[in-house]
Amino acid sequence: MFTSIFREGNHPDDYSRLTYKKLLEEVCKFANVLKSKGIKKGDRVAVYMPMILEGVVTLLACARIGAVHSLVFAGFSSDSFSERIMDCQARVLVTADGVWRGEKHLALKSICDQAMDKCAKNGHNVEHCIVVSHLGRVTSPTGVQQNQSNKIPMREGRDCWWQDLIAEASSSCYPEWMQAEDPLFMLYTSGSTGKPKGVLHTTGGYMIYAATTFKYVFDYKPSDVYWCTADIGWITGHTYIVYGPLANAATSVLFEGIPFYPDNDRFWSVVQKYKVTQFYTAPTAIRALMKFQDDFVLRHNLSSLRVLGSVGEPINPEAWLWYYKLVGKERCSIVDTFWQTETGGHVLTPLPGATPMKPGSAAFPFFGVQPVLLDESGREIEGEGEGYLVFKRPWPGIMRTLFNNHDRYETTYFSKFPGYYCTGDGARRDGDGYLWVTGRVDDMLNVSGHLMSTAEVESVLTEHNAIAEAAVVAKPHPVKGECLYCFVTTIDHAVFDEKLLTELKKLVRERIGPFAQPDVIQNAPALPKTRSGKIMRRILRKIAVNDRNVGDVSTLADSTVVEQLFATRPANA
Ligand code: AMP
């Protein structure tokens, strides 16, 4: 069997295989297309792609000519996307006409059109938009094949179909020689304040780290079939769908669909179909699938599985045990991999077959990584204890800078505790030395593994002209891990009603993306503030979970606000 990528479409009847030989040809062709559009070493290319082969080809084509890809998850809104295009000053954008996710249709090109219009209004012109004609070649969930591409408006002189350009391109492209420290790609991640951060990874260090962690953490062997269900739009997709597997010449599965279509056993039927040996997914997916009857799992032959991975957020022991027992039949290793966009690859993880597992613990550092727990005063905690999770020494895959903003890089990650890389997470070390990541210690939320800042949601809510002030906190959620609980203070005379709620939710969807939609929005005539005017989120977090154990409220300017908010929690809270 040749090394290949198995492409599994949204619909189970839609699948194909791409060998590495063919992949190289496609990459060279598209690299030549990019060159013909004037793209050269160091230029940024914006990418807004679904989980299709052209997504992988685009990233590798950029790498081949030394261009810096900046892929934005195709669930972000046009506003978020335009902000990112402008920040990295991309002149070329690569996308697809649209995609089906289960029975939902996403009009990607139209989102890109809106994003490009917004860029133009702000003085930045995207010169070329290359569009994969995808909808016409896949089975739609209704079973009717339609060539939707015909209906996509294409702007003369700017927009081109991928297929037309590829048809004329040469399949040989000599690679650009790169220095180890030359940039490979950038990927935006939310910052706890203000604009998203363009995390920059380099060619040598990132690749060696992606390759090494992939090989050891998944124990990949040449006859294996590896499958990571993440989206290519996140760092997990970059490192463990594209670069890590490719650098190991791994055979892997690229999946365009969702776990619930056409039925709730899709993951397990794909594992059986390709005899997957390593399966890598997120706790939020596991928790969503746990809700269904065991038979959805049991009806499939999962005996090929050897290693099961988890990524994106802490995995609760209940989900871990379900994964271990029902999916892994108590014979697979589970690797709970802790890492971040910034770390490039796994930094804390058990090694399969070598590390005795504890459900919910990311265990120990990967080779060369030196984790440390610090107390508030910056003192290292030895032995058992809990504190800030930081790293004492760099490793090859650590990001090198934030695009165009090295100062922010230093202040965000290295200034709180000089001499250490600060993850923004807390962790506990148990008596056996195992590390347990406890979650974010800054104002960040992790909704289904999507990281976002409370500040960015608050600023969107206050854009609404009926809202005077907003405060957002994370509330635990049984499937998503965390969800958004928002407190809003309306301006005088504004009415807090269903209409306002709908408008606020819509605004967040439009400005950030559907995944950021708040679960709860509470009317807060006043917010609990200190005398200096600082909102006490600690108290809001208690109100969100209806825990009256709020602790010391003596620093509040008006402590009656707290009781009022407890009394008026909405019915869906
Ligand atoms: P991102 O940069 O979007 O990949 O998000 C990174 C964040 O996700 C980390 O800072 C953690 O808060 C969380 N995270 C990722 N993997 C794990 C894990 N295995 N256990 C606990 N938290 C995790």
Automatic annotation (TrEMBL):
Coiled coil: none annotated. Belongs to the ATP-dependent AMP-binding enzyme family. Residues 13-400 form the AMP-dependent synthetase/ligase domain. Residues 456-534 form the AMP-binding enzyme C-terminal domain. It comes from the Eukaryota. Keywords: ATP-binding, Ligase, Membrane, Nucleotide-binding, Transmembrane, Transmembrane helix. It is an enzyme of class 6 (ligase). This is Acetyl-coenzyme A synthetase. It holds the Pfam family AMP-binding. Its EC number is 6.2.1.1. The chain crosses the membrane at residues 45-67. GO terms for molecular function: acetate-CoA ligase activity; AMP binding; ATP binding. GO terms for biological process: acetyl-CoA biosynthetic process from acetate. It catalyses: acetate + ATP + CoA = acetyl-CoA + AMP + diphosphate.
